[in-house]
Design a protein that fits this description.
It is built from 13 helices and two strands, in the order H-E-E-H-H-H-H-H-H-H-H-H-H-H-H.
Length: about 325
């Protein structure tokens, strides 16, 4: 009797403890959801709802304040027959292919310079990063002053060096793209420099000491130690830079207006003009989702080609 009553008492104690733990866990979970709820509501309203609303709009015709009509995939069929879409897409792809490695390379060079540790490199690091903190309107105003003909800073310097011809940097297609690339490089390279610099400072110094003992010169140490150690960082930078270049809009819009003609008009600018100038929200939504798909496909392929795992798998 004593043993059975004792076991019942233990079972009751365990049951009370279990129910107490359950209530404690429920209370903790409820508190967590209370704190998460404001974020989830904002995320659902400002992120998830626009995504699905935009996807629905891409299958409709109409505009803001006008009753829309479901048209199925007509917008997508129209897109592939639209010469302006293809021109804007090739403009964007060309800028991505050229700008991404150039900006990543300059970021690497600048990071190597400030990582040397010489006197004044801290100030140099701040100077390199400062343009990244500027608003795009401020950055474009600076570059318009530099690039304008007759009174621009760049042409004035070239005239001092003996170049007599007046160069219209924003009036000819190739020069306009070069100007957009230079402005983007100056504006964004500081961010890449900081990421690469963080990667450089994570490389163990013992590797360089060992290579020095083995007789490796500076180039060999860079090629066989620095670059392999930075591969993951460089893949990340190339991916982020490619996505940013796909979203190119402010630089050509404010520098050239997409001109001369439409030769520097990127896809985002075409989406903007279609949606907010021609008020064709259905078609502009379909353009946006095609750009989204292109970015995903390009990023996946880029990671497959550049990631260390794909290289080791091939070997």
């Amino acid at each position: 009797m004593n043993s059975s009553s004792e076991s019942k008492r233990m079972d009751a104690t365990k049951s009370r403890k279990y129910s107490h733990d359950q209530m404690h866990n429920l209370r903790e979970n409820l508190s967590a959801w209370v704190f998460l709820l404001p974020f989830l509501l904002f995320y659902a309203f400002f992120t998830l709802y626009p995504i699905f609303k935009g996807l629905f709009l891409s299958f409709t015709s109409g505009s803001f304040g006008i009753e829309s009509k479901f048209v199925g995939v007509a917008n997508y069929i129209r897109m592939f027959q639209d010469a302006k879409f293809w021109e804007a897409l090739w403009n964007t792809l060309g800028f991505v292919i050229v700008s991404s490695p150039v900006i990543a390379l300059f970021g690497l060079l600048m990071a190597l310079i400030v990582n040397v540790g010489l006197k004044g490199t801290t100030v140099l690091r701040s100077i390199f990063f400062m343009p990244y903190m500027l608003a795009i309107s401020v950055m474009v105003s600076i570059w318009k002053f530099i690039l304008q003909p007759y009174t621009g800073l760049l042409n004035s310097v070239l005239h001092q060096l003996g170049v007599e011809q007046e160069i219209f940097w924003l009036a000819e297609t190739n020069l306009a793209w070069t100007s957009i690339l230079l402005a983007t490089l100056w504006w964004t390279v500081g961010f890449n420099m900081i990421l690469i610099l963080a990667g450089l400072q994570e490389i163990p110094g013992e590797l360089y000491e060992a290579s020095n003992i083995d007789g490796a010169n500076g180039w060999q140490a860079f090629w066989f130690i620095t670059l392999p150690s930075l591969r993951k960082v460089l893949v990340l930078i190339m991916t982020l830079q490619s996505i940013a270049s796909f979203k190119l809009f402010g630089q050509p819009w404010l520098l050239t207006g997409g001109g001369p003609g439409t030769s520097t008009r990127p896809l985002v600018q075409y989406i903007y003009e279609t949606g907010f100038k021609q008020w064709d929200t259905g078609y502009s939504s379909s353009l946006s989702y095609v750009l989204f798909a292109v970015i995903i496909i390009f990023s996946v392929l880029q990671n497959k080609l550049l990631s260390p795992r794909s290289r080791t798998a091939k070997k």
